[in-house]
Design a protein that fits this description.
Isoleucyl-tRNA Synthetase, Domain 1, ATP binding, single chain, alpha/beta, about 550 residues, Gyrase A, domain 2, 12 strands, three-stranded antiparallel sheet, binds arginine, ArgRS_core
Length: about 550
């Protein structure tokens, strides 16, 4: 039972007509310690009972079951609860040790489906740091949703269709070298794509060639389809390498091309409902009712667009998964676009468009520079991950040269550093990424949290991993209470992170817990033999368990030694 429920339950003995939830909603957190840990104001009862609040408080206090509290006192119109810290603490530790894996779980979702559109890189292009953000934020949100009993469905909506493939094929026709592509597919294709884009101004005919190739692709031309399949397969292979490194799995890789045969229905529906308007040959949907610019769903040459595919996607997902929420983890630069998407679906009469949520995130710059794929100054994710692992390896070599599985740990720390660096920031903030900062073992980093966890594990090993189950877990010093209070807030933190789709709340929580633990570690002689030794070790175990759980929610590993 969490503290708040404990207070509400005690109050309910005196207020049997109120529900626990109602009582909880009335509870306040006093500003100073001298008014206790929780306060229950009685003003709202005055009218009904025809009595002064002071009097009500005085009467209630007689009826409240005070067991389990240090004290409960009436203070004017308030009833102040002072938690019996040692007892509350022991209860929290016991709960964690009994089932560390499920600690913090709660049931908000009742197993309802939530689709999460995430990562979604574009084929024939390197995966950028922007796609990294979508991948790790989406993955963390999926983990958090699962923890609160939703059923997350992770979808990699690959950008595998669109006019850019026409351009790429035109470029390949002019400069393509099959061997070179085979040797290094993504980089080579990327080079062609950049070349055709940079030279397009001098050569207007390139654009026409691109359009022509895309038309061929849409018409199912054999050579165009062969090239497309080849580009796609090679790209996916490379993306998989990154997903393996990040240990992220998907439930579906249905990308844009999957919806090619599903867009007619959308256009037909729009037409039937008289929503499809012509504007200079193009098909548009008026969204002025929503204060938005019209959405273009068909180009003047009849070809479809990103929007058309997303309309078909949304409908397909609703039918396929019956989602209760449909999330799109996509950069903030597409916010307007997603407003248009939702509005178009609403106009079509799909009331479930309200269940669609764009989860935007800020731009990631690298050492202050923006990353773009069209001009080619991209930062490749794989390079960054490799570099980070190398840095982690160096630090391990300095700090712990005898570590047995150093390469494996370096991988977990290097990758974890990047993931954590991304997730500790509120997702809408822009991030300037500096690798050296992210991989540091001190400061607000993933390795710092991982290190606190490893330190806790090492203490437990040193103590011989004693059996803590039957021990007296009461602790009454201020520093351990600081930690226990945090441990008790884990579930509440998870709940907020789930409701706000914001993993940074978990990241910040993990940092606070690691910091509190390091302070404790610095000031307390944990392993000294006295009658609280087992209680202290239980605290260490609980910290280790909760840090590991919080990191896991973020998709970061917690090595036992580093
Ligand atoms: N491929 C797109 C991009 O890189 C992101 C796709 C997001 N998902 C979607 N259903 N529109 O910008």
């Amino acid at each position: 039972m969490d503290e708040k429920t404990q207070v509400a339950t005690a109050l309910q003995t005196a207020l049997p007509d109120m529900s626990i939830e109602d009582i909880k909603n009335k509870l306040e957190r006093p500003k100073t310690n001298k008014n206790g840990d929780y306060a229950f104001p009685t003003f709202f009862l005055a009218k009904e009972l025809h009595k002064a609040p002071q009097m009500i408080a005085g009467e209630l206090i007689e009826k409240i079951d005070q067991t389990g509290f240090e004290k409960v006192v009436a203070a004017g119109p308030y009833i102040n609860f002072f938690l019996d810290k040692a007892n509350v603490g022991a209860g929290i530790l016991k709960e964690i040790l009994a089932d560390p894996e499920h600690y913090g779980n709660l049931d908000l979702g009742h197993q309802a489906n939530v689709t999460i559109d995430m990562s979604s890189p574009n084929i024939a292009k390197p995966m950028s740091m922007g796609h990294l953000r979508s991948t790790v934020i989406g993955n963390a949100i999926a983990n958090i949703m699962k923890k609160v009993n939703y059923n997350p469905i992770k979808i990699d909506h690959l950008g595998d269709w669109g006019t850019q493939f026409g351009k790429l094929m035109a470029a390949y026709e002019m400069w393509g070298d099959e061997e070179a592509v085979k040797a290094d597919p993504i980089n080579t294709l990327q080079k062609y794509y950049v070349k055709i884009n940079t030279e397009a101004d001098e050569h207007p005919e390139y654009a026409e060639a691109g359009r022509e190739w895309f038309r061929k692709l849409e018409d199912g031309d054999e050579e165009a389809v062969r090239l497309w399949k080849w580009f796609r397969a090679e790209s996916l292979k490379r993306f998989m390498k990154v997903y393996d490194m990040l240990d992220v799995q998907f439930d579906s890789y249905n990308g844009e091309a999957f919806y090619n045969d599903k867009m007619d229905e959308i256009l037909q529906l729009l037409n039937d409902k008289h929503l499809l308007q012509k504007s200079r040959g193009a098909g548009i949907v008026d969204l002025s009712k929503y204060d938005l610019n019209p959405a273009m769903v068909q180009k003047s040459d009849g070809s479809t667009l990103y929007m058309t595919r997303d309309l078909a996607t949304a409908l397909f997902r609703k039918r396929m998964y019956g989602f209760e929420q449909s999330l799109y983890v996509v950069g903030a630069e597409q916010s307007y676009y997603f407003q248009q998407l939702k509005a178009t679906l609403a106009t079509m009469g799909f009331t479930w468009s309200k269940q669609i949520h764009h989860i935007p995130f800020g731009l990631m710059t690298l050492n202050g520079k923006k990353m773009s794929t069209r001009k080619g100054n991209v930062v490749q994710l794989e390079e960054v991950l490799d570099e980070s692992i190398k840095l982690a390896r160096q630090q391990i070599a300095e700090k712990n040269p005898d570590l047995a599985n150093a390469d494996q740990v370096a991988q977990e720390v290097g990758v974890g550093a990047i993931v954590f660096h991304d997730l500790k920031n509120e997702r809408t903030n822009s991030i300037n990424f500096k690798l050296e900062d992210a991989v540091k073992f001190e400061g607000e980093t993933g390795p710092y949290v991982q290190y606190a966890h490893a330190r806790a594990e090492s203490l437990l090993r040193k103590a011989g991993n004693p059996d803590l189950a039957g021990a007296d877990l009461k602790l009454n010093d201020e520093e351990s209470w600081n930690i226990i209070k945090l441990l008790g807030q884990y579930q509440e933190t998870i709940k907020r992170a789930a409701v706000k789709y914001d993993p940074s709340l978990i990241g910040k929580y993990a940092l606070s817990l690691a910091k509190a633990f390091n302070q404790y570690y610095a000031h307390t002689r944990i392993l000294v033999d006295d009658d609280q030794k087992l209680a202290r070790l239980a605290l260490v175990q609980a910290v280790s368990d909760v840090l590991k759980s919080a990191l896991a929610l973020l998709g970061v590993k917690a090595p036992d030694e580093m």
